[in-house]
């Protein structure tokens, strides 16, 4: 089960339920939280300079 842009677990660790709903601002916050580990992984592995668009594409 997923909500918003694909969130399956809320930032507080609780799993998404079938009846859950969210606002657009919540969806954006959940996505930011979900992407953070991937963003950090890319920043730790890529050793050449890159811009925000390139980071976004790699994440």
> How much of the polypeptide forms β-strand, as a percent range?
under 5%
The percent of residues in helical segments reads 40-55%
The figure for the number of domains is: 1
Oligomerization category of the chains in this entry = single chain
Shape: elongated
Query: How would you characterize the largest beta sheet?
Result: none
Output mean pLDDT: 94
Keywords: Antimicrobial, Bacteriolytic enzyme, Glycosidase, Hydrolase
GO molecular function: lysozyme activity
Catalytic activity: Hydrolysis of (1->4)-beta-linkages between N-acetylmuramic acid and N-acetyl-D-glucosamine residues in a peptidoglycan and between N-acetyl-D-glucosamine residues in chitodextrins
Protein name: Lysozyme
Question: Nutshell version of this structure?
Answer:
The chain is mainly alpha-helical and 59 residues long. It has helices spanning 24-45, 52-58.
Characterize the structure shown.
It is a single chain. The mean pLDDT is 94. The protein has one domain (1-59). It is elongated, with a radius of gyration of 14 Å. 3% of the residues are buried. It starts with 23 loop residues before the first helix and ends with a helix. With 59 residues, the chain is mainly α. The chain is 49% helix and 0% strand.
Features:
0% strand, 59 residues, 2 helices
Task: Summarize the topology.
Blueprint: H1 24-45, H2 52-58
């Amino acid at each position: 089960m997923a909500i918003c842009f694909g969130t399956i677990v809320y930032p507080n660790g609780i799993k998404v339920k079938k009846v859950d709903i969210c606002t657009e601002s919540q969806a954006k916050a959940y996505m930011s939280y979900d992407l953070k580990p991937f963003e950090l992984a890319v920043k730790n592995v890529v050793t050449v300079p890159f811009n925000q668009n390139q980071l976004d594409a790699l994440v």
